Task: structure prediction
Amino acid sequence: MRLIFAKDYEDMSCEAAKIVSGQLYLKPQSVLGLATGSTPIGLYDRLVQVHQTVGLDFSGVTTFNLDEYVGLSSENPESYHYFMKEHLFSRVNLRPDHCFVPNGMAEDLEEEGRRYDALIEQAGGIDLQVLGIGRNAHIGFNEPDIKFEAMTHKVRLDDETIRANARFFAREEDVPRYAISMGIRNIMLARRVLLLASGPEKAEAVYAAACGNVSPKAPASILQLHRDATIIADAAAAARLPEAWREHRSYHF
Ligand code: PGA
Result:
């Protein structure tokens, strides 16, 4: 695992944008795994900027989002599909038919999970998976549990996640209770993983991801076993990590 210690949110987003644009320069046909939430917005803004200023080309890129709320269509402004259109898909030259998000409106969510996993496989697997992290160390909507779920599946959201995500809805009662999410095996099969964390409310989760026991009770901890995982944490999110690590801009173990 590699850790990059960023000063603040801006610095974290810049470092992430360098890694993602580097990936696209090296492999213009890359398959990206993408995340929603407040954390990656700065990354997406910078990618749009690089696209507009120096022509970073997304025309050969395919994207797969981690998750979607059950019961929200892509036209619903609170859906993750809508979020992606607003923050990235409509602002760069991605082909709409190359941008995939699980369908939260599917009647049979198990079948939808299988369909989504097959699409990822047909695309050749994910080259670089971007992740945020929940306060409870979830990745995607893989909530703390007694076992890891492998593939794309329906999940009941934790009360903590519902509270944390209520800020995107008019009322907490409006937050869907269920989602469909890629599983841990989907994430672990990505060739590279890039997890972003910002703010003091993520410090415990970042500690669990990098230093805790590998356990489904802290899903991000599995990334310690990934062959090419990088965490970019800003100073507040990295605050619980050993000081000897934080003295460096980046640390490998
Ligand atoms: P956030 O969500 O970026 O809005 O904090 C991250 C997550 O829950 O994975």
Notes: DSSP finds eight helices and eleven strands in the chain.
